[in-house]
Amino acid sequence: MDSRISRITINPEICHGKPTIRGLRYPIENLLELLASGMSMEELLEDYPDLEKEDFLACIEYASKLLHVKSIHRIAS
Asked: Mean pLDDT throughout 21-45?
């Protein structure tokens, strides 16, 4: 089984090089924010018909992998 992570693409010509889904102009951070706001995958799939359930699962998997670091430091704001 292929990892869903392969759906995540980074291209300096798309969204300023931010990670997106399948080269589309949907930054991962925006999709995660929509999920975190309480929208369900079903609602999002209705609003964004060119995305698939596996795309949202890829976003969650990608975020999970990013948190596998030794430590997180607070950055002064």
From this structure: 95
